[in-house]
């Protein structure tokens, strides 16, 4: 199989989808790896390192897409990459299709086998390919929020950890999954008062246990969200339903009543966001004010710490890349139910129920098509 690695073109996206060690393992297994020139520069990996690993360097994205049987990326294809996708190709990347009907329709039309990192799900319900990037985003959410609480950045002038004799900053985290948990770890480490809301009582019990009472846990419902949000200096949205659009849990009306100079960081923005007033931003222009509240909506937060993120991501994606290359799509999907759950589109049909529901498209179970 020919595996193609194009350079990411999303604004300020410095990660790469395959490291030289992975390229070496693929080539030693009899596959060909083609990498676009300077694809790894943003995380400190040179073309020379890829060549040493047996990969061939090509200069244009179009060449990589046109020659590859499988494209391995970090972020979803952007419109200028759409013409490069060829019918029947395998696309393995973060897709986040629920808020992206244009890309969804193209993948259906081209009969792309579209496998999304974020919907690969093991039997216990965990999302192994999303986990390391959720860790990064959760930790970064507090760092970013703490910075924008500075008065010179438009914030309330709050130090999250407070000082002796002065109250600490209040952090509200909606969602107790990997991102929310990592956000809570950093926030408590800084000395903030932290509350986590979630709908899963077992998850809340787990958080109570690991934080040993340092984090307040509250059942997520309309009343509790309202009370918590109004008390927040920093609000972190960390809600995820695999494959689906993030539920809107914080209304614009509620945002308008938040403390002036408070900060919202919505980690779920790449799935549409759980705060009604959030919209995607970039690392270059990460924030905007609305109703006196600073909104941070960077949709590829881990891209800023590209080397850490690249190696963390490829640690978990590569075994699936190798399985697809070695066994082919039908063989790999039949042998691994977690990978099968990652398939969003196959043979021109939407196979992931969450994506189908979000789009209003018909759902065709994958088992009917293999």
Q: Write down the overall mean pLDDT.
A: 96
Number of strands: 15
Query: What is the level 1 CATH name of the largest domain?
Result: Alpha Beta
Helix percentage range: 25-40%
- Main β-sheet: number of strands, strand sense, barrel status? 8 strands, mixed
Report how far the terminal alpha carbons are from each other: 19 Å
Secondary-structure-derived class:
alpha/beta
Estimated radius of gyration? 21 Å
Shape: globular
The H-and-E topology, N to C, reads as EHEHEHEEHEHEHEHEHEHEEEHHEEH
Strand order of the largest sheet: 3-2-1-4-5-6-14-15
For the record, the CATH architecture of the largest domain stands as 3-Layer(aba) Sandwich
CATH superfamily of the largest domain: NAD(P)-binding Rossmann-like Domain
Tally the helices: what do you get? Answer: 12
Question: Which percent range describes the beta-strand content?
Answer: 15-25%
Number of domains: 2
The low-confidence parts are none
- At the fold tier of CATH, the topology name of the largest domain is Rossmann fold
Oligomeric state of the chains in view = single chain
Based on the model shown, name its key terms.
2 domains; Rossmann fold; alpha/beta; 35% helix
Task: Give a short summary of the structure.
The chain has 370 residues and is of the alpha/beta class. It contains 12 helices and 15 strands.
Describe the protein in words.
The protein is α/β, with parallel strands linked by helices. It folds into two domains: 2-120 and 306-368, 3-Layer(aba) Sandwich (Rossmann fold); 131-299, Rossmann fold (3-Layer(aba) Sandwich). It is 35% helix and 16% strand. The strands form two sheets. An eight-stranded mixed beta sheet has the order 3-2-1-4-5-6-14-15, sandwiched between helices. The protein has a seven-stranded mixed beta sheet with strand order 9-8-7-10-11-13-12, sandwiched between helices. α5 packs parallel to α6. The longest helix has 30 residues, at 306-335. The model has no long low-confidence stretch (mean pLDDT 96).
């Amino acid at each position: 199989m020919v595996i193609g690695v194009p350079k990411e073109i999303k604004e300020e996206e410095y990660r790469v989808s395959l490291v030289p060690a992975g390229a070496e393992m693929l080539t030693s297994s009899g596959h060909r790896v083609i990498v676009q020139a300077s694809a790894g520069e943003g995380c400190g990996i040179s073309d020379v390192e890829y060549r040493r690993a047996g990969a061939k360097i090509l200069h244009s994205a179009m060449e990589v897409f046109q020659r590859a049987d499988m494209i391995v990326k970090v972020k979803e294809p952007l419109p200028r990459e759409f013409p490069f996708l060829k019918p029947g190709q395998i696309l393995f990347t973060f897709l986040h299709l629920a808020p992206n009907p244009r890309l969804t329709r193209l993948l259906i039309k081209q009969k792309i086998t579209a496998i999304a990192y974020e919907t690969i799900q093991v039997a216990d319900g965990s999302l192994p390919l999303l986990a390391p990037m959720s860790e990064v985003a959760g930790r970064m959410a507090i760092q970013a929020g703490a910075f924008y609480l500075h008065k010179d950045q438009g914030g309330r002038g709050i130090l999250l950890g407070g000082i002796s004799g002065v109250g600490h900053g209040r952090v509200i985290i909606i969602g107790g999954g990997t991102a929310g948990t990592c956000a809570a770890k950093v926030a408590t480490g800084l000395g903030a008062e932290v509350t986590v809301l979630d709908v899963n009582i077992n998850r809340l019990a787990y958080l109570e246990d690991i934080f040993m009472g340092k984090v307040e846990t509250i059942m997520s419902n309309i009343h509790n969200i309202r009370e918590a949000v109004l008390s927040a200096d920093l609000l972190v949205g960390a809600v995820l339903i695999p494959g689906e659009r993030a539920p809107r849990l914080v209304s614009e009306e509620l945002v308008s009543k938040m403390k002036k100079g408070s900060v919202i960081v919505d980690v779920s923005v790449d799935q549409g966001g759980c705060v009604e007033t959030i919209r995607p931003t970039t690392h270059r222009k990460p924030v905007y004010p609305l109703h006196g509240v600073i909104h941070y909506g960077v949709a590829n937060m881990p891209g800023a710490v590209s080397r850490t993120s690249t190696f963390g991501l490829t640690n978990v994606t590569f075994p699936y890349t190798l399985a697809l290359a070695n066994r082919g799509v039908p063989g790999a999907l039949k042998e691994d139910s977690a990978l099968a759950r990652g398939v969003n589109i196959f043979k021109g049909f939407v196979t992931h129920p969450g994506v189908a529901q979000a789009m209003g498209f018909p759902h065709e179970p994958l088992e009917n098509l293999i």
